[in-house]
Amino acid sequence: MAAELLDRIDELHLRAVETDWIPQIINHIRQLIDQGQPRQTWPQSWHWNWRDKVDRINGLLAFQTFAIMCEGQLQGLMQMNSARSLCRLPEQAGKHLAYVDYVETAPWNRPNIASKPRYRGVGITMIRAAIEHSRDLGFHGRIGLHSLPQSETFYANCGMTDLGIDGTYENLRYFEMTSSQADALSG
Amino acid sequence: MKLAITKEWFERRVKLEGDHEIAAGALARDPAPEAEASVASESIDAVRLAFGSLIESLRRRKGLTIEKLAERSEIDVADIVRIERDAHFRPEPRAVYRLAQAFDLPNKALQQLSGNTSAQPEMQEHALRFAARSGESPQKLSRDEKKALEEFVAYLARQ
User: Fold this and answer.
1) Whether A102 and B24 lie within 8 Å, measured CB to CB
2) B8: chain A residues, CB-CB within 8 Å
3) What is the ipTM of this complex?
4) Which domain, by its residues, includes B19?
5) Are strands A73-81 and A64-70 parallel, antiparallel or unpaired?
6) What tens digit of pLDDT does each residue of A11-47 get?
7) What CATH number does the domain located at A3-33+49-186 have?
């Protein structure tokens, strides 16, 4: 199946998040709730709001963004920020890197939500795009990101170095890739 | 940006992804019960919970759908859904005022329940009692739930 990587999230993609992605995610969460959890145990901070989310992605358009389309549907989104932080790994500490602010695949591609994920490869494609973007910036493929807990295995599989839980960023685990790790993955 | 991903590279590397999730960055986070429960430090506000149950029960007693109530009270459907089901959603005072009018209850008392103003201890006690006596999501109010609703409404009306 031919997929297309676009180096900009546009209005059409945001609308797809709102109309295609978010209802599915919400449905999934409703099902979790319906599986017998009483009202008192509902998410305590159920203030998550899809409009906020789309607005936030909208606000990110100033940065380098990527979207993957396949069969007319939005399959994945990524946002890169080249000025957020510097490398933390001792061997490249203080050097510039391209930081992945946000990457997500469509709910129907997510093993945790869909019993049969439709497309695999959004993650690996985005990581490759992140590496190429870093190279374009002259950062030799160095990238960094904060993985969600359920995705840590994937980033470890990509050969990134695990620098542990980052207490300064929602207790998410921070991963960093060196230029040689980037060469290994893209080779 | 040039991105020359060959089919061969993709097929070789997609195995790294396997059946793993790939999301990164806080924005990718779902509002999942497990994730939220560990982060949340605040306890569920019983008064606000009672407010959600109250609106839901009153609406059901009147036989209104969420849509109909939204239409009558000129409040967004999404806001009513969140008022009823999201204990952390803080409705705008204007929406609470409209609900007070729709159900013919004192605005001041409803503003307290909604969390827009702070509830007096006595109000908290009544709200807690009502929340404890109302069901999870009744299609139809049981006799006990009806009684609880009537008692609470009577208390509110005296405020």
Assistant:
1) yes
2) none
3) 0.87
4) 8-39
5) antiparallel
6) 889 889 888 988 888 788 777 777 765 554 444 344 4
7) 3.40.630.30
